[in-house]
């Protein structure tokens, strides 16, 4: 006798293998499928299978997570997305797209690492470059610009 878990894993493995490989291929090619501009607006998250009576193959529905505003943009591209996905698989395998209202690819606030202040030598060099400028306002603006350029070059 063998444990039931071995048989279950073997049977389920065949069923789920295509599903997760397919989702992985869609995720890997997502920017090609929807285009660079829309790639960060939504993210494929799940494939649902439904087998109709008498049908040989199950129909697949792709779930795409997107905010409501982004889902609207993607909805207008739905047919194009389906066509490109089915080009990848070489058959009409994904039959429908469903949008789920989940913020997708949202990035929280990105905290920038504070930049190190200018060294004494950098301040002196900047001061020497701006020495001949008499207008105080112009000099202050150019000094801030110079500081930004020097700090960006450091990082």
Quick one: overall form?
Answer: elongated
Report the top-level CATH class of the largest domain: Alpha Beta
Number of domains: 2
Instruction: Decide which structural class fits the backbone.
Output: alpha+beta
Largest sheet: 3 strands, mixed
The CATH topology of the largest domain corresponds to GMP Synthetase, Chain A, domain 3
Strand order in the largest sheet:
1-2-3
Q: How much is the average pLDDT?
A: 79
Structural Rg:
27 Å
H/E series = HHEEHHEHH
Annotation field: number of helices: 6
Share of residues in strands: 15-25%
Structure notes:
With 155 residues, this protein is α+β, with helices and mostly antiparallel strands. The protein has two domains: 4-101, GMP Synthetase, Chain A, domain 3 (2-Layer Sandwich); 120-154. Helix content is 51%, strand content 16%. It is built from six helices and three strands; from the N terminus they run ααββααβαα. It has helices at 4-28, 30-34, 68-75, 78-89, 120-129, 136-154, and strands at 42-50, 59-66, 94-101. A three-stranded mixed β-sheet has the order 1-2-3. A hairpin with an 8-residue loop joins strand 1 (42-50) and strand 2. Helix 5 crosses helix 6. The chain is elongated and about 85 Å long. The model has no long low-confidence stretch (mean pLDDT 79).
């Amino acid at each position: 006798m063998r444990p039931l878990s071995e048989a279950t894993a073997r049977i389920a493995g065949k069923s789920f293998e295509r599903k997760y490989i397919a989702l992985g291929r869609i995720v890997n090619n997502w920017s090609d499928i929807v285009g660079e501009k829309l790639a960060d607006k939504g993210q494929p998250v799940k494939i649902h299978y439904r087998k109709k009576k008498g049908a040989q193959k199950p129909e697949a529905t792709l779930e795409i997570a997107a905010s409501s505003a982004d889902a609207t943009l993607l909805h207008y591209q739905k047919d194009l997305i389906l066509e490109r996905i089915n080009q990848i698989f070489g058959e009409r395998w994904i039959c429908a797209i469903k949008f789920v209202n989940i913020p997708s690819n949202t990035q929280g606030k990105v905290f920038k690492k504070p930049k190190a202040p200018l060294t004494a030598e950098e301040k002196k060099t900047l001061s020497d470059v701006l020495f001949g400028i008499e207008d105080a306002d112009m000099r202050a603006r150019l000094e801030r610009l110079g500081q930004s350029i020097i700090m960006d070059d450091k990082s």
